[in-house]
Amino acid sequence: MTHIKTIEINEENVINFAASLGIFATSIDIIMEIVEDKIQTILEASTVKLLAYAKIMFLLFFGTARDLWSLILHAIIGVPRGPYKPHSNKPVLHCPICGRPGRPNGTTRVGTHQYICPYHKKTFTERSSAEYRLFRRILLLKAYQLLKSGLSIRLISILLGISRAELSEAFSKLDVSRIIRNMRALVVATIKGILATEEYALLVLDTTFVGSTAVILVTVAGDAVSMFVAEAEKKKYIAASIAFLKKKLSAEEARRLVFLSDGSIHIFKAIRQLFPHSVHIRQFHSKKHIGLVHTHFEYNEKRYTLVTRWDHLVPEDERMHNVRGLLEGEKLLREGEVILYEGNLARPPTDLSEKDVERKIGACVMVAEMFISKLDEILKSDYAKYKSQKGGKFTSRVARMLNTFRKDKTFLKGLGPVCRVVNAAVISGFERLLQQDMNEIDARYISYIYTSFRQMALCEPTESEKIRFKELKARILENFRMRLVEAGLLQVAENDEKESLLAHG
Questions:
Q1: Rounded to the nearest 10 degrees, how much is the dihedral formed by the CA atoms of 166, 168, 174, 177?
Q2: What is the DSSP letter of 384?
Q3: Which of 23, 47, 128, 383 could form an S-S bond across to 124 if both were Cys, CB 3.0 to 4.6 Å?
Q4: Which residues of 257-374 form beta strands (DSSP E)?
Q5: CA distances (Å), 196 to each of 73, 174, 187, 200, 256, in order?
Q6: How far apart are CA 176 and CA 189, in angstroms?
Q7: DSSP per-residue letters across 449-477
Q8: Is 344 helix (H, G, I), strand (E, B) or coil?
Q9: Could you give the angle at the alpha carbon of 81 between the alpha carbons of 76 and 85, nearest 5°?
């Protein structure tokens, strides 16, 4: 049974939380008294109390972080909007290290007040003061409360006026660090305990969603759980959620991990990256694969994928298909059939009929022979279209063609003679492209096709094909990089590549 413990944040925890920033609890009391007194002063001095109430309530409920800080800084604490008057040091902000009141020390280049701590002799500004640090922490606690209530990071960002990047970073740390450390320690201890007495440790890896925020869960032996809050179920977040295991487990221990997950390609890629020698069992939930299980494992230093029905090991008279009929994935295999593939079958083509697979193979061959083999001509016409387009993001035919080939060539696996034909066409196209004068091509256009060329690969190449293609590709990319560097666009092209890789896991 899973034991759930509630976590309460009471007043004492908040004081300790603030003190951990290097601010004395007495400073917090002083700040709170100032806030309370100033609110009373503003309301009592106002001739139109209702409008004063309305303004404060509006800012508290609807104001962004900047609005609220401005209210606290000028209207409540009373820091002047202009420079301090000579020989005046009240009201002032407090030192973020010791909590003592600072002394006015002029202004920064952008016009914000600067202070100096009389004890440390160190300067600080409005944005590094004890008050501002407390303000940001309280906002982030509010953001965390909204996250637990089911709001997405994007919506919280809009409501509080805090950037998504800052929220993501804060949540990763606030994942409440102490609790996360304890969770992870329990997970590692449970794994080590299982490995000490048994052959393998089973880890269930899954993602649930709170609003549009992903919560990645790693479960071991039922009640040892680690969780990770992320923006989405993507490879980089999955990898971040299990990276602590790689640090805490030896290489031999990592070999005896068995991961159980759904068919998520993002989970698959993260596990392959961090734990390449582990066993990974994937049960597919997608409409075309439901009922299908892939087991990825290593044997004699080679990778294999075993494809079975989900209830393959259940006695025949107890199998669910006798009651509800076959699921879509189960229909792909005959009764008792298993298929063993060499390598990792990440996105199985078994959802396609034989005719569909043949069509994919034909399309891949056609792209290679009709388009890539004439890469110089295709690029010239594609560039002409780019030049004629006015405004908007350009969709390159060359990039689309290369990406289609790169994805569909997986269907040629095991078809040696076909691979020879398409590889010859690709190499011929790259040779022809090198003969073209690329100095006439606009660098901005090159930034649209750079990633597609960089990710291009052959279909099960022979050693001679591999050497020749590597040489041609290196020369083309070097030409592209020179043009991009000259135009100051290399960073743009590399960012586009990162976005492309993230989009495809």
A1: -120
A2: H
A3: 128
A4: 257-262, 279-283, 292-299, 302-309, 339-342
A5: 58, 33, 14, 9, 11
A6: 20
A7: HHHHHHT---SS--HHHHHHHHHHHHHHH
A8: coil
A9: 105
**8 Å CB contact between 308 and 289:** no
Q: pTM of this prediction?
A: 0.44
- Number of other residues whose CB lies within 10 A of the CB of residue 261: 20
**Mean pLDDT of each 10-residue bin along the chain, 505 residues long:** 37 42 56 69 70 73 79 83 76 84 85 87 89 82 73 79 81 65 87 89 85 76 79 87 92 93 92 94 84 88 86 74 74 74 71 65 82 84 81 76 79 80 87 80 80 83 87 85 76 47 40
Find the angle CA(443)-CA(444)-CA(449) to the nearest 5 degrees: 90
State in Å, rounded, how far the first CA of the chain is from the last one.
34
Three state DSSP letters for 147-178: HHCCCCHHHHHHHHCCCHHHHHHHHHHHCCHH
Report yes or no: 258 and 202 within 8 Å, Cβ to Cβ. Answer: yes
Residue 174: the pLDDT is 58
Dihedral, CA atoms, 398, 360, 234, 147, nearest 10 degrees?
100
* Domain boundary assignment for the chain: 11-140, 189-348, 354-503
Q: What is the pLDDT of residue 500?
A: 44
Which residue in 267, 261, 265 sits closest to 283, CA to CA?
261
Answer for the pair 406, 455: CB distance below 8 angstroms, yes or no.
yes
Could you tell me the two tokens for 373? Answer: 């083999």
Supply the Cα-derived Rg of the chain in whole angstroms: 31
Question: How far is it, in rounded angstroms, from Cα 125 to Cα 149?
Answer: 34
CA dist., res. 413 & res. 341, Å (int): 11
Dihedral sign of CA atoms 271, 277, 283, 285 in order: positive
- In angstroms, the CA 296 to CA 343 distance is 8
DSSP conformation class of 101: B
Question: Residue 389: helix, strand or coil by DSSP?
Answer: coil
At 160, list the tokens.
């509080």
For residue 434, what are the β-bridge partners?
none
Q: Give SS3 for 413.
A: coil
Paired tokens of 257: 């991990």
At residue 247, the pLDDT reads: 92
Cα 137 versus chain centre, distance: 24
- d(Cα 479, Cα 106) in Å, to the nearest integer? 53
Residue with the two structure tokens 């006695």: 315
In 111-237 the beta strands, taken as DSSP E runs, fall at: 113-116, 123-125, 201-210, 213-220, 224-230
pLDDT tens string 42-78: 777 666 677 777 777 777 777 777 888 888 888 888 8
CB 80 within 8 A of CB 91: no
